[in-house]
Specification:
The complex is a heterodimer of chains A (210) and B (328).
Chain A lengths: L2 H16 L3 E6 L8 E10 L8 E5 L10 E2 L1 E6 L2 E3 L3 E5 L2 E5 L8 E11 L7 E10 L2 E9 L7 E2 L1 E7 L9 E9 L6 E6 L5 E13 L1
Chain B lengths: L1 E4 L12 E11 L5 E5 L1 E8 L6 E10 L4 E4 L3 E10 L7 E10 L8 E5 L5 E2 L5 E5 L2 E2 L8 E4 L4 E4 L2 E2 L4 E10 L6 E9 L5 E4 L4 E4 L6 E6 L7 E9 L4 E2 L3 E6 L10 E4 L2 E2 L2 E5 L6 E5 L5 E2 L4 E10 L12 E6 L2 E2 L1
Parallel strand pairs in B: 7-18
Antiparallel strand pairs in B: 3-6, 4-5, 7-8, 8-16, 9-14, 9-17, 10-16, 11-16, 12-15, 13-14, 17-18, 17-19, 20-21, 21-29, 22-28, 23-27, 23-30, 24-25, 24-29, 26-27, 30-31
The chains are: A mainly beta (210), B mainly beta (328).
Amino acid sequence: MSVRVVLLIVLLLQAALSQMGSLQVTPNSPSTLFTNTTYLVSYYTLYNLPASATFFLDFSSTYIGVPNGPLNISSTIGAVSISGATGSCSASKCTLRLNNNAAANSNIQFNIGNLLNPPFLLQQTTSLKVTFNSTYSESSSWIINSILYSPLPMGINAMKQSDYGVGNTDVTYSFNFTVPMTPSNPQLSITIPSQVGIGNLQTALSFYGS
Amino acid sequence: MIIFAVVTPASNSTNSSGYVYLTISGLTNPQSMGNSSSFIIQLLTTTLPGTSTSCTNCLVAQVNSQLIAQSTVPGNIATINFLSSNTLIGQINTITVYSQLYASIPAGGMYQIVLPPSVSPVLPVNCSTVYGFTLTNGSSTPSCSFNATTNAISTNNFMFSSIGSVVIKVIINNPPDARTLPFWFRTFDASNNMIGNSTTPYLFKATPLTLNNTAQKNSTQVDTGFKLTVNLTLQVTLQSSDFLKVVLPQANYVMSGIVCSSAGINIPCTSVVDNSTNNLTISMSPPCSQCTNGSSLSFIIDGLINPSFINNYSQTVIVQTAHVAGVI
């Protein structure tokens, strides 16, 4: 075996050892904001994972509500359900245990919940540290895209126009609707349909909390 | 267009639901009858919770359906003026219509004249923009079409990007009689949604033709019976459903004695005394199935009685040809 071949093998081994598994965290349905739901945590491991391995999942940089205490949890390895997984959370950080061996190049999934979806649309960054053993661990992160969440619905109680004539100007439109919650520093945005013309706009707004 | 308004909760607590009453003034209803797409109302938070760090497009809740603007009442089209080049019955008439529009006509839309049932356009339809209208891009010649089902003349390439006066000229055939007839005016957008509709029609009444006739009494003595002989030359073709009418001044008529005849043959006729004028009107069908324009007719009415005095009025006899709804 030539020196060149040995060097190539060594380089390939280094490259393989520097690779880490990949993480994905997504909300299950319902994905409506500010609603309790379960989350799917997927991790693809490149290496054999011992039963004693731990998954330290950190939601503290997100606005996802995480209850303190034990988690409801179920798990699969390669789409096969397994039993024995456990999880508990404190201060938005959760420790998950598969309690089963997982072979290299397999996909591990945890369904955890219920968590509380964030109260507004914003991408949420989670991080995960997988500790294989006392000498090896991997860290990765995952951004939950905001488009995975649905805004809360608003209830329409009434909408009226002061006039219904074609093309009539200076018409007053009145809206009576319900907001499901009031965030801090709230703001209302109204998009006027293109078929409606805009003149000298004046607005008035009243809010009555329930 | 997006406008923003800050909601101030009634209490300092967040996360509470509530009712919002929002009014927006100064909007313009859709430019044709129908619905708009929905207003979109969104509730956002402008800062991250517990911080002053701004949060952009941080949507919390929204409604993007059901908030539909509606235009259900067409805008009025007022007729300012209606000029005729010839108002005589059955004649070709170039009409110039002055309308006041309260909503514009977009490209692809149309201005429409709904003709009365007995009025038709001279075909092919000839129309022209006199004022206000512009032709749609790419058009150089005014174009109109006629729908026989709706009896309406519609512009094909007219638009009007403003509100105000427009003037159009079209050529029509006047009605066959002098009854009062309504012309309606409408506008539509490119999707055939109505924009405007005349709330009151323009009422048109053609001028009766002069009927060449002679009416001869065989006696002019007061309070005596007489026979009236009428000869006339038609200027329009009469149908069997049309009428010949003779209007006689006030007198002590004994209507049971009135007999009508033509060419020696008695023909049915009706006699009616007008309650307000006391004039006697005798009506009969033409003594032919179709009396052609230019042909001569004669008929006799017997059993009439002269008035008890004589002056110009008492000697006046009016001879008319008429349609069921008006004088020809």
